[in-house]
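From the pipeline queue, job 12 of 40. The input is one protein chain; the requested action is below.

Action: predict structure.
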Amino acid sequence: MKHFIVILLTFSFLSCYGKETESIFSYCHLFLDTTRINTQSITSDQNHSLLNAIQGAGVNLDGFLTEKLPLIDYRKIVLPGPQYIISDDPEYIRVQEAIAVRETVQPGTVRLYVYNVNGVLDPAKIDRKITAVIKNQGTEDMHLIMLKYSSQKPSTNYYQIAKMGLNDYFNSLPQTNPRIIKPGAIVAIDEQLEKNVVKYDELVHGIYEFVIDQRGEISVIQTDTQSSDADVISRIRTVHPSSNTNAGRGLFGISNYLVVAKDTFSTLNPAASLVVADGLRDPWINGIDASTGRIMNLDGNYGVIYDIEVNWESPDGKGLALVTWNALSSGKWCGGMANVMRASKGKFKEGIIQLPSNKLITNGYPEAVLIQIFLPDPKNKIQTIKLTYTPPGASCLPIPLIFIPVDLE
């Protein structure tokens, strides 16, 4: 993923990465200009708009939104999590038949993120199948139980497919019946991918979390719509070379983080922003591409789950609005942002929220999207906000989470 960094003496913004190098995943660095921190408050009209907005709706915060808000400092802890495989390099598979990624996993839990596009142009734009398979490398029957399942119909509407992919992932429930895979057998991880016909420039998007009890080899392949997966695996001996222009591929040891704000946020303070997955304060995770043995970065930390905790207090009786926005809307491929996350109870019930909830994307300044309004509790001086977030595909990163004190009357 080609990139550039502009560094001024004031460490001001910007550094953008994106789709001009054939990447649907995009991200940008936010540099904090410490000489120009914005501490202004929202207007009374904006306060009123936030209080009256439905959850997930856009609110005009003209004159307030900026990437130069004070940053909330945090500690980041690696949580136990699944072995994590992502297939996004190459993202556009330009050859008719290829293995996009191949990794070996041990008995235990696995998270697999498939993010590949049929990019075949030669000799013509042709239909393809993109699927993920697992081979039982053990000596006994493998039992595979799906814990989380998200699979979308191939589409050129990348915002839609990425947004609904996260929505389905967060809302999915564990399956109870195991699939049994004989030693040496190769089976599709997702039977739906076997049925899909992927046209040129369509994205295949799947997020899977499952547990296995035998060693396995996972491959993501592109082939014609008729060939069996076993035949493809037998006739393709090598993994297609990495393009080195996309988010990454390989097996990664980190899949889950706990992020805890260092200080209690007070509503006496000005609004502040919490930013993860920026590649600076929160570096990219590292893994290994088994096909080359190289250590790989996962640019953007896509598919990594962040559990976020922020303690807060309200000495003045104010509430605390949490909003997000497309801070990189001026970037060439950053005209929209679509996300899904979980937020603890406030004015609205605890749950999973599509952002935005009343349309597909938010375009950018001056629109913010309301996630939650947290209310003071006379019985509890300090409360804890809990969020679950993962960087969304098809949107430019990082995506700030902004905490804004609001008058409730």
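Job complete. The longest strand covers residues 108-118.
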